[in-house]
Amino acid sequence: MLRGIDYLALSSKNSLLLSLCARHQQPMLPNSLIQHAKYPMKHNSSPITEKFYSHAEKIVLERELLVNLKTYQTELVMLLESLSGHGYEDTVYRFYHESCKVYHAASHQTRQIVEVLRRLAPANTTLSPLFEEIYQIGTEDKTFQLEHNENWSQHTRPFIEAFFHARYFLEMAVKYGAMLDVAPSNLPSGWAALLCLYGIR
């Protein structure tokens, strides 16, 4: 007997795939649709795919990432400091105060961070599809409309979510770029998160 319906939003045009799920049975979806549903894409964008590296390749990439963190350490520290004072406090305040200023402030700072994070990427690596999804939604070119006040969280929380995720990775980049001399075999959580960000772990 059918117990429910799974609704998966598959495109920005609001097309839906309805998969009828029998009890104790997984939906039978083509791999391409599973990939699409897991990592939603912007209209006209290319599918996001993950790369897989051998153990030896991962070691090389980890070392390269650490070199990049140290190379850009001064710039990373300056950027983090600029996002740790009034600008940081004010961005979060604007969200809870329901101020339209959050539309620009959060997405602008997120773009600044991600621009630097991309420069840190080891050769032939890309940012995590999960992070890219959060980033794309959280930096959409959206302007305030009066009707947004009726569902403030839905319209503005993605801006804050993207900002927090980006700032976290910036903080980890500063921390482990200063702390580590070699890529560790026992992974601290923050370093492991950076590896995930670049698809190395």
Tell me what the structure shows.
It is a single chain. The protein is mainly alpha-helical. It folds into two domains: 2-38, no CATH class; 55-197, no CATH class. The chain contains eight helices and two strands; from the N terminus they run ββαααααααα. The protein has a two-stranded antiparallel sheet with strand order 1-2. α3 (73-82) packs antiparallel against α7, α5 (102-120) packs parallel to α7 (152-179) and α6 packs across α7. The longest helix is centred in the C-terminal third of the chain and has 28 residues, at 152-179. The termini are far apart.
Task: Give the topology, please.
Layout: E1 2-9, E2 16-22, H1 31-38, H2 55-71, H3 73-82, H4 86-96, H5 102-120, H6 129-138, H7 152-179, H8 189-197
Antiparallel strand pairs: 1-2
Helix pairs in contact: 2-7, 3-7, 5-7, 6-7, 7-8
